[in-house]
Amino acid sequence: MRSVLTLIANPETRKLSAEDLDAVRRAVPEAGAPAWLHEDVACDLLVDIAPAELHAIEAAARAALDGLPIDVVTQGTGHRRKALLVADMDSTVIEQECIDELAAEAGIGAHVAEITERAMRGELAFEPALRERVKLLEGLPEAKLEQVFGTRITLSPGIRTVTDTMRLNGAYCALVSGGFTFFTARVAVKAGFDINRANTLELKDGHLTGQVIDPILGRAAKLESLEEFAAEKSLTLESTMAVGDGANDLAMIEAAGIGVAYHAKPVVAQAAPARIDHTDLTTLLYMQGYARDEFAGA
């Protein structure tokens, strides 16, 4: 059965060399000739193996690269280009955790960030951890949310190229977050998403009440969103891609046609079918077989 092994480097730190490819091909003798998606950056190697062998092939390639900062992805070639992208927001589409940034404005940043980290690692249940952190923000002026968005929130490198390219090719892009609608509504516009979903912070007299309006959008709701959007577009899950970094993303990552852990917590990186450890979000396009000259704006 035809599969593909893709190698992706970050050209700002280390280019993908012929020697790297030779090392991988020696470790994976089933691999065919290199097909460059972007010279010195991303390359496909077609491999005739059964899907059950993909994990072993990936492990062999990683071992051959001996710790080099190169991402390795293995998958079947069927339905490679996805028609639906569902992405987490905090620490995925943006480089920050919004609730931590709000807490910093309230002077309790370190305490809240510790809870966030434990929740994203899967050490704490998501819903009670979210309620606990939001309760600590009680009384924060609504104006601080706008201030945080304007001064503290930055898009992760490559995300706008990903959404523009996928949408140009007919895909639907959804931002689904365990964070807050105040931020997802703004980030979705800036990052090029078709739709956004998240939790809603309760406000009264221009201040946070310390409550989240039910129901909480957590791990199960992210999976339900993936399934719902796929059904709306008459897609099988095989035609979907999900990306995130935290434990609350795992259900959708495991269910998608290709689920991707992005600079993720260990529990997520270990369980995800694919992972990005060294490169930016444009790797989502290389995973789908897009060549660099097919990127939007290229």
What does this entry look like structurally?
The protein is of the alpha/beta class. It has 2 domains: about 1-80, 2-Layer Sandwich (Alpha-Beta Plaits); about 80-298, Rossmann fold (3-Layer(aba) Sandwich), CATH 3.40.50. About 40% of the residues lie in helices and about 25% in strands. It has 13 helices and 11 strands. It has helices at about 20-25, 55-65, 90-95, 100-105, 110-120, 125-135, 140-150, 160-170, 180-190, 220-230, 250-255, 265-270, 285; strands at about 1-10, 30-40, 40-50, 70-75, 85, 170-180, 195-205, 205-215, 240-245, 260, 275. The strands form 2 sheets. A 7-stranded mixed sheet has the order 8-7-6-5-9-10-11. Strands 2-3-1-4 form a 4-stranded antiparallel sheet. α12 (about 265-270) links the parallel β10 (about 260) and β11 (about 275). α4 packs antiparallel against α5 (about 110-120), α4 (about 100-105) packs across α7 and α5 runs antiparallel to α6. The protein starts with a strand and ends in an 11-residue tail after the last helix.
